[in-house]
What we know:
The protein is of the alpha/beta class. It folds into 2 domains: 15-40 and 284-378, Alpha-Beta Complex (Aspartate Aminotransferase, domain 1); 42-282, Type I PLP-dependent aspartate aminotransferase-like (Major domain) (Aspartate Aminotransferase, domain 2), CATH 3.40.640. It is 39% helix and 15% strand. The chain has helices at residues 15-25, 42-53, 66-80, 96-107, 124-130, 149-155, 178-188, 218-221, 230-234, 248-258, 267-276, 281-284, 286-301, 329-340, 368-378, and strands at residues 29-30, 90-93, 113-118, 134-139, 160-166, 194-198, 224-229, 242-245, 307-308, 316-320, 342-343, 345-346, 359-363. It has a 7-stranded mixed beta sheet, sandwiched between helices. Helix 2 (42-53) crosses helix 11, helix 3 runs parallel beside helix 11 and helix 13 (286-301) packs parallel to helix 15 (368-378). The longest helix has 16 residues, at 286-301. The N and C termini lie far apart (51 Å).
Amino acid sequence: MSSIVSKLPQTAVNIFSVMSALANEHKAINLSQGFPDYPCDPQLIKLVNKAMLAGHNQYAPMAGAVELRERIAEKADKLYNAAYNPDTEITVTAGGTEAIFTAITAVVNPNDEVIIFEPAYDCYAPAVKLAGGIVKSLQLHEPDYRIDWAMVRKLTTNKTRLIILNSPHNPTATILNEQDIKELTSLVKNTDIIILSDEVYEHLVFDGHKHLSMAAFRELKERSFVVASFGKLFHTTGWKIGYCMAPSQLMNEFKKVHQYNVFSVNTPMQIAAAEYLKDENHYLGLADFFQQKRDYFREALAATKFDLLPCSGSYFQSVTYRNVTDEKDSDFAVRLVKEFGVASIPISAFYSRAGNESVLRFCFAKKQETLDKAVERLLNL
């Protein structure tokens, strides 16, 4: 057999798989990968079972169950005053990551340039490279990880095809503000630049702040793929259901890729999600729910030797550890698992260039007793 020329020669198993496997090996408390350790609403399980018993067990339409696309359109209109046609501008996907991959593949051609902001969720750059695009990354740094729009303008050329944004941001827990929206709007005006907006944590925004979706701004909506996730919404990350909203011209290209990737998403869970979404309280109360967890975890962590970074959204809390050690964050994260029994994610894993940010990310979407046990161990540092 001839040797294979890798399309992603620098890519290894991602950090989430590595740290979760290490946590399992050492029976550590896993605050690394972003998933809850508490159950979803039993009503949702009953709705899935009801859909199965009612015979919704065959292929759903390629774009998603009609009922679910209609609920998504209603939700976007209610939250963002954004009109999306459920027939031509919404597609249900196999999770947020599939939506992101599909959007990138649909519009990025060889030698197109794509701007991403690092630290960045690790699926962005590989998808761009697989499409033959060129990644142009702008590095952001703690404590506030704000975007320098003057630098973005310098990165922008006539080859810039796509800008990828993520708010609330994973891993830094920052959110876009009104000034960011103004700068972005000015930047893309009179260009062909497309925006891919990763908004999977849209309902996890704290301290009275408002999520600023690309869908809510006409000039941005008309050129944006907006990606969301039911895994984050329903505490069901293992179900891998998300969706994408975009103007029909963009969505038409999106569907061309989607249909030859997964074609459609599991039917009974779509039917259940459509029914569950009829009660808006199932998502409007998420911010308070997670803010209570954030506040509890932050207060507990304050007694450790870590310094807490701001957390305005998502379910991640990042910390610096310069008062503890000068180790590389990747080395320290491994030692934290082996010696103290707590798994985290080193922030350097979200940058393309090797370095030591001296920052770790913890997930607080956990039961209170899980957070208590983790902090108890971290106090031994």
